[in-house]
Design goal:
single chain; about 70 residues; mainly alpha; 2 helices; elongated
């Protein structure tokens, strides 16, 4: 496998209730798969993680607005 696509890990390794890392946004399955994945799959995982983190941020902002 190649490792041209860097891991999105930021060292904040904690899973939420949906088994998604609150630091990088990857699911537990994606984290486990990362070392064996090729670049095309890694790009998909990075994009999915980015979208999850954006959704988490929007949710946090909305929850703060309600409090």
């Amino acid at each position: 496998m190649t490792d041209d696509i860097a891991s999105p890990c930021v060292g904040t390794c904690k899973l939420d209730t949906q088994s998604v890392c609150i630091g990088c946004g990857r699911s537990i399955a994606e984290i486990a798969e990362w070392s064996k994945a090729g670049n095309p799959r890694r790009l998909v995982m990075v994009e999915n993680a980015r979208l999850r983190l954006a959704a988490m941020t929007r949710l946090q902002v909305n929850l703060r607005a309600l409090s």
